[in-house]
Write a structure and sequence with these properties.
This protein is α/β, with parallel strands linked by helices. It has helices at residues 56-60, 63-66, 101-118, 134-145, 171-174, 192-204, 222-239; strands at 15-17, 28-32, 43-49, 72-76, 80-84, 90-93, 121-131, 151-155, 178-184, 208-214. It starts with 14 loop residues before the first strand and ends in a 10-residue tail after the last helix.
């Protein structure tokens, strides 16, 4: 329980429509708090972007496979409604271009602010995790928000392509940004060569980028999630004050 006088609520909403994001077509979010939540500790926040045809509920199931106790996580619903899945859940997407980019970026930042109101979140430890097609949305939001984001992990996805009059990113926004690329070597949907090109582009722009490859296709390999946990923990511990205790795997 929160200590007396804590500003973080005990009746935190787990899911709902995000307040203050009226322009987002589907401003639905889901929170997952860590096991044995400790209000005095400033947690890292994971912001999850689901694959094409999935939704915010399904992608949240990945968090315990990274760590059940290290993070507060929030998952967001993509702005496109694609129909209903065989399991009865909604199928959603992020759009194929930049038509939803500004709306999504606004939605993302509102979700981060909502998380800070509900949980004790470290303001410099906000990490975006994009899965498959959700990686492009995670990249766009991270590039737009710049130093407000601690890093972005792209799993079996790709940096979005530039469009006429709209560059992928501003070089000064990417310089120093932490990026983890996790990619299947047999990925036929987004070939591994694309991930290697993304690595080269981001490295040339000055990002702190790493590329890990895995023996898988467009499906997530379990070690990808393990490595996201290690990558986030490494970033947190590297930035931690000497008198703060560090989180572990």
């Amino acid at each position: 329980m929160a200590p007396t006088g804590s500003k973080w609520r005990l009746d935190r909403p787990i899911t709902g429509l995000l307040d203050g994001a009226p322009s987002a077509p589907n401003p639905m979010y889901h929170f997952r708090e860590p096991d044995h939540y400790v209000p005095r500790y400033a947690y890292p926040l994971l912001v999850l972007f689901h694959p094409h045809g999935s939704n915010e509920e399904r992608v949240l199931d990945l968090v315990p496979r990274m760590s059940a106790r290290n993070y507060v996580a929030v998952s967001l619903r993509g702005p496109e409604l694609l129909g209903v899945r065989e399991d009865g859940q909604l199928a959603c997407g992020w759009g194929q271009g930049t038509e939803h980019a500004d709306v999504v970026n606004e939605f993302v930042w509102k979700a981060v602010l909502q998380a800070r109101r509900e949980y004790h979140i470290h303001t410099e430890r906000v990490f975006f995790v994009g899965v498959c097609e959700g990686a492009a949305a995670a990249y766009r939001a991270a590039f737009a928000l710049g130093d407000k984001v601690g890093g972005v992990a792209a799993l079996n996805g790709a940096v979005p392509k530039a469009t006429a009059g709209c560059p992928v990113f501003r070089w000064n926004a990417v310089r120093g940004m932490r990026v983890m690329i996790g990619h299947g070597i047999a990925n036929a949907v987004v070939p591994c060569g694309n991930a290697r090109r993304d690595y080269g582009t981001l490295y040339a722009a000055g990002a702190d980028v790493q590329l890990n490859t895995y023996a898988t296709t467009h499906r997530l390999h379990p070690h990808m999630l393990r490595d996201v946990n290690r990558w986030v923990i490494g970033a947190v511990n590297a930035d931690a004050d000497p008198d703060r205790y560090a989180i572990t795997g």
